């Protein structure tokens, strides 16, 4: 946890998370002999690589947020309070809302520049739904039934997942 | 989805919905480049030479680096903060080559060039995400998917869930 001045910060990456190279995942496409298309339409978003993800409190300063994103090589960060997603800040938000007046606002809370109530995906949404959303939004929070954050989906993570399925289908 | 795999190998980059690139010279000040990126809602500006051939890229990641170092937007040129992930591909290369390149490098942008090496457009993760979405057809759920979707987040987090085997 960070100091009170910067708010709480955390990189969530729990042990045992399902990875794209998890052996259990690799069993699916070949043995199911289903088409990749079907799998994309049928599999849960929660199975995609949605972790690790960076999350911070809304009180975190803009300056600290940028440092954390840079250090974590993350292009987006969730703003979380009481285990609920309040908003999201991405490199695009920083470009659009912070860059030109950075010296003046760098110590302000990140909540001032976040995108509130971002479009989210449920854990149980299909990968197909996720892929359609990711064509519109580069960073999509993934939440559980209680809207608690589970991760962030990015295009790269979607590509990794689909590419693994492509490989499996090709080899089956 | 076999169609998607086939399309990846057959389609050329010039067939993608490429974004019109912001082309700047190496002396362009960061403030000017950022203003263009904001106005056009693009995440990068391509640094080109006198023949419009790309030789660097200034991205949102470059902006983050600038802010962290306290660089003045009016005294810093784009060439001082180019993104190390600078990738150019000919417009006749396949979409699959771009797909693999992005998977290998995590690059967000790819500069697409004409035969003479001049800038044709820009694509990247966003462009490929759109391409992927276009190739996702609707399908009714099957028994396999119903079983998979009964897995709880806890099972998946714990890595305890195993996909059902076909015919099992």
From TrEMBL, chain A:
Annotated CBS domain residues: 49-104
Biased composition (Polar residues): 1-15
CDD domains assigned: CBS_pair_SF
Region: Disordered, residue numbers: 1-29
Organism domain of life: Bacteria
Keywords in alphabetical order: CBS domain
InterPro entries hit by this protein: CBS_dom, CBS_dom_sf, Diverse_CBS-Domain
Keyword ATP-binding: no
SMART domains in the cross-refs: CBS (SM00116)
Cross-referenced PANTHER family: CBS DOMAIN-CONTAINING PROTEIN (PTHR43080:SF2), CBS DOMAIN-CONTAINING PROTEIN CBSX3, MITOCHONDRIAL (PTHR43080)
Protein's name in the database: Inosine 5'-monophosphate dehydrogenase
Organism of provenance: Stieleria bergensis
TrEMBL record, chain B:
Family annotation (Pfam families): CBS
PROSITE patterns: CBS
Superkingdom in the source lineage: Bacteria
Keyword NADP appears in the UniProt entry: no
Keywords recorded for this protein, A-Z: CBS domain
Region (Disordered) location: 147-168
SUPFAM superfamilies documented for this protein: CBS-domain pair
Natural source organism: Stieleria bergensis
Start and end residues of each CBS domain: 17-75
Keyword Ribonucleoprotein attributed: no
Name of this protein: CBS domain protein
Biased composition (Polar residues): 147-157
InterPro entries: CBS_dom, CBS_dom_sf, Diverse_CBS-Domain
